[in-house]
Amino acid sequence: MSPSVDAVVRGYLDHLTVERGLAANTLVAYQRDLRRYAAYLGERHLADLGVVREADVAAFLVDLRHRHGLSKSSAARTMAAVRGLHRFAQRERLTEADPARDVTPPAPPRRLPKAIPVAEVEAILQAASAGDPPGSLRDRALLEFLYGAGARISEAVGLDVDDLDLTSGLVRLHGKGSKERIAPIGSYARDAVSAYLVRTRSELARRGRGGPALFLNLRGGRLTRQGGWGILKAAADRAGLPPERVSPHTLRHSFATHLLDGGADVRVVQELLGHASVSTTQIYTLITVDHLREVYAAAHPRALG
Q1: Which of 249, 267, 293, 296 is catalytic?
Q2: Known catalytic residue: 302?
Q3: How many angstroms separate the CA atoms of 92 and 94, rounded?
Q4: At what angle do helices 24-43 and 5-15 cross, to 10 degrees?
Q5: Which is catalytic among the residues 190, 252, 253, 258?
Q6: Which of 152, 190, 201, 222 is the catalytic position?
Q7: What Rg, from alpha-carbon coordinates, does the chain have?
Q8: Which of 172-176, 196-200, 269-273, 293-297 shows the lowest per-residue confidence on average (mean pLDDT)?
Q9: Catalytic-residue membership of 275
Q10: Is 249 designated active site?
Q11: pLDDT tens, 116-170?
């Protein structure tokens, strides 16, 4: 008899935690998706993973789309977890076959990253300095850093002071899956972070227990992701931009798009963003091609009929 579905799910999640080192948010998503799959199999009295067949997995995909009303992208994410579970079970010889191997998840629509023009980025950065002290220097430093290093908000708020070398202009970022990378930061970000360290951080640190954290909240603790979102939304509002158009990831998208617009090689941008595959980075090239088309259409005398 093959192991129960629940037992294999537990083993797979342990594998993802220990061997793969997935981020906490990713693990939560896997747990949720696999619980849904286990419940579906339970409804059909399929308690052992070894008796699951390709038709059962395909029917689960139909169930996701029609009974649960999941979008293509959500269904594809859930199926990725299911396919990973069955691959794991076969690789560990817990089951003889992989019934999910030939079940193709729906292709989610390709979403272009939402970048904003350089002028709007500069307006947000300028507006960050218009907040109340002592937070204004921190706010400017955080947003300059997000745009100057192309960092994720989780990477920025997870930084410690020792991760930053302002002399060389380098920072050690802790990315997804506990992966580290060294990234350069520009002079504007360095100047803003330096001003924050010299004039503000020590004052904030006396208010709480931020420890080695680089970016502190007004109570002296480590700034959270939600706190970083709030700082950006407030700056965007002061800059006259709709806050719903802007997120910390917008600055990361803009960082990549502006680099490519400036002639940077896509593989260099891949390293700077910390993408595991260049195919993830190449989606930004679609934006720059669209930009080229717009310029061509507006400037070339024979572009339009």
Answers
A1: 249
A2: no
A3: 5
A4: 170
A5: 252
A6: 152
A7: 23
A8: 293-297
A9: yes
A10: yes
A11: 999 999 999 999 998 777 889 999 999 999 999 999 999 999 999 999 999 999 9
72 is known as an active-site residue? no
pTM as predicted: 0.64
Reported as a single tens digit per residue, the pLDDT across 186-234 is 899 999 999 999 999 999 999 987 789 999 999 999 999 999 999 999 9
Q: Is 138 assigned a catalytic role?
A: no
176 is catalytic: yes
Alpha helices in the chain (DSSP H): 5-15, 24-43, 54-66, 72-91, 118-128, 135-149, 153-157, 187-196, 202-205, 225-238, 248-261, 266-273, 278-299
- Supply the DSSP symbol for 221: S
- Which residue among 15, 176, 207, 291 is the active-site one? 176
Which residue, among 37, 45, 46, has the nearest Cα to 9 in the 3D structure? 37
- Whether 258 contacts 115, CB under 8 Å: yes
Residue 4 pairs in a beta bridge with 48
More confident residue, 54 or 112: 54
Cβ-based burial of 220 (10 A; exposed 0-12, middle 13-18, buried ≥19):
middle
8 Å CB contact between 252 and 146 = yes
Q: Which residues are bridge partners to 213 per DSSP?
A: 160
C-alpha to C-alpha distance for 75 and 170, rounded to whole angstroms: 39
Give the model's pLDDT for residue 88: 94
Catalytic option among 86, 138, 222, 275: 275
